[in-house]
């Protein structure tokens, strides 16, 4: 079992409902989306260094588990599988194996955070597996990637009924925000909802005003705390 890994490191979770929790990040290389890139606008992806599969090293399951345990010998940290895209191509089976192994060990040993959180871009099918918790993006029109979204994922989230799952909307402008409200209504979303502004394009305070007016269920503003603490550095 192999996959392409860009980096493995420990820090705190930067966003969402797990913000601030000590976390081991397993960053996969390879993502077929290109968020935000249009004829006139720039890619907004904050991990451009992990977009190509060749931007990672081929690693087997055993060596990844070894690296996780070197950073978290007592198995007390949350595990975050991120990217790139951890559910794309050969990374998908490796993500499952990592999460399944840790879930089984941590459950048996009564450790915290048995399930691994997966940050996924919404274009890959999520699963009902209990060893995963999902932070799933829904890409809005401003990303140029909305037609790549797999709408069946909303039904899977409903079936999972996991209070730790979350859906993330990254908002570039007012059109994006209005589309998010439509999607929430059309899909009858009950999962936690995160709103993040595209840096430099939407003022977070303006986004708060929009959220206050529509007040979608279970929603919150999510700013990236690691950028507040360390700026645009990698591996923190
Ligand atoms: S899906 Fe994520 S990793 Fe892929 S281009 Fe978009 S922001 Fe970057």
TrEMBL record:
- What EC number(s) does its UniProt record assign? 4.3.99.3
Record's cofactor remark = Binds 1 S-adenosyl-L-methionine per subunit. Binds 1 [4Fe-4S] cluster. The cluster is coordinated with 3 cysteines and an exchangeable S-adenosyl-L-methionine.
**Per its Swiss-Prot or TrEMBL entry, what cofactor is needed?**
S-adenosyl-L-methionine; [4Fe-4S] cluster; Mg(2+)
Q: What's in the keyword line of the UniProt record?
A: 4Fe-4S, Iron, Iron-sulfur, Lyase, Magnesium, Metal-binding, Queuosine biosynthesis, S-adenosyl-L-methionine
Outline the extent of the Radical SAM core domain: 18-232
Task: Give GO MF terms, alphabetically.
Answer: 4 iron, 4 sulfur cluster binding; carbon-nitrogen lyase activity; magnesium ion binding; S-adenosyl-L-methionine binding
The biological process GO terms on file are: tRNA queuosine(34) biosynthetic process
Q: Which residues form a coiled coil?
A: none
Name the source's superkingdom. Answer: Bacteria
Q: What Pfam families does its record include?
A: Fer4_12 (PF13353)
In which residues is substrate bound?
A: 12-14, 27, 82
Q: Give me the residues that bind Mg(2+), please.
A: 47
Report the enzyme's class at the first EC level.
lyase
Binding, S-adenosyl-L-methionine:
44-46, 84
Specify the pathway: Purine metabolism; 7-cyano-7-deazaguanine biosynthesis
- Binding positions for [4Fe-4S] cluster per the UniProt entry: 31, 35, 45
Catalytic activity field: 6-carboxy-5,6,7,8-tetrahydropterin + H(+) = 7-carboxy-7-carbaguanine + NH4(+)
- What does the subunit comment say? Homodimer.
Role played? Catalyzes the complex heterocyclic radical-mediated conversion of 6-carboxy-5,6,7,8-tetrahydropterin (CPH4) to 7-carboxy-7-deazaguanine (CDG), a step common to the biosynthetic pathways of all 7-deazapurine-containing compounds.
What protein family does this chain belong to? Belongs to the radical SAM superfamily. 7-carboxy-7-deazaguanine synthase family.
Q: Which HAMAP family match?
A: QueE
Could you tell me what this protein is called?
A: 7-carboxy-7-deazaguanine synthase
Q: Which organism is it from?
A: Leptospira kemamanensis
Gene symbol of the encoding locus: queE
